[in-house]
Amino acid sequence: MNEVSEEILKRAINGDRTAFEIIYNTYAGFVYRNALRITESIEDAEEVTQEVFIRVLKNINKFKFNSSFGTYLYRITVNSSINYVKKNGKKQIDGQIPDVDEPQSSSTIDEQFERKELIELFLRLMNTLDEELRESFYLREVEDMKYEEIALLLGENINTVKTRVRRARERLINGFKEFKK
Q1: 82 shares a domain with 146
Q2: 114 and 84: one domain?
Q3: Structure-derived torsion over alpha carbons of residues 141, 143, 149, 154, reported in degrees to the nearest 10
C-alpha cells in the first residue's frame, strides 16, 4: 500500500485542499475495497467511502503520527463500514462483481461466463471464512500488504497473521476442490 509523506499530511492538517486531494487519490481505492469487503454492496461501499473521507477531512487534525496514516484510515474505514451495516440493517451481496477487468475481446462467451462463475465462487468462499481469516487474507493477497504491516494494522502477532493467511488459503483451496468434484 502506498503511503503519503508526512509533509503532505501536515499540509492537509493545515487546510491545504490540494494535499487532501493527494490523500484522497492515494487511498480512495483502499478505502473502497475494504468497505466493499465488509458491506458486500457496491452502493454501500461507495457511501461508506464518502463518509470516511468526510470524517477524515473534518478530523485530520486529530491524526497524531503514532501509526501510519494507512493504519489510521483502515481503522476508520472498518469502523465506518461496520456501523453502516448495523445502521442499515443489511449485509448482502448485491450481485455485482467489483473491480473485475473486462475480458479480452478475443474471449468467447463461454470463457467470460466461466470467469464470472469463478469470481462468484471465490466471493462466496471468502464469505464462509471467519472474519479474522478473511481480513488477514484480504490484506495480504488483495491489498498486497506485507505480513509485518498487517500485524501492525490489526494489532496482532506476525505469526498469528501468517497462520490466518495460511488457513484461509487452505480453506479456499479446499472449497475450489469441492466445487470441481
Answers
A1: no
A2: no
A3: -90
Judgement on whether residues 119 and 65 belong to the same structural domain of the protein: no
**Domain match, 18 and 80 both:** yes
DSSP character for 92?
-
In terms of pTM, does the model score above 0.85?
no
Rounded distance between C-alpha atoms, residue 63 and residue 103, angstroms: 41
Q: Please tell me the total count of domains within the chain.
A: 2
Residue 94 pLDDT level (bands cut at 50, 70, 90): very low
Predicted confidence at residue 47, as pLDDT, reads 95
How confident is the model over 71-80, as a mean pLDDT?
Answer: 91
Quick one: average pLDDT of 124-147?
88
Q: Provide the domain limits for residue 68.
A: 6-88
Element spanning 130, H or E? none
115, 103 Cβ separation under 8 angstroms: yes
Kindly report the length of the chain: 181
Is residue 154 situated within a structural domain?
A: yes
Tell whether 99 is covered by a domain: no
Do 36 and 80 reside in the same domain of the chain? yes
Range with lowest mean pLDDT among 26-30, 60-64, 97-101, 167-171: 97-101
Confidence of residue 32 (pLDDT cuts 50, 70, 90): very high
Q: Which residues of 54-83 are buried (b: 16+ CB within 10 A; e: fewer)?
A: eebeeebeebeeeeebbbbbbebbbebbee
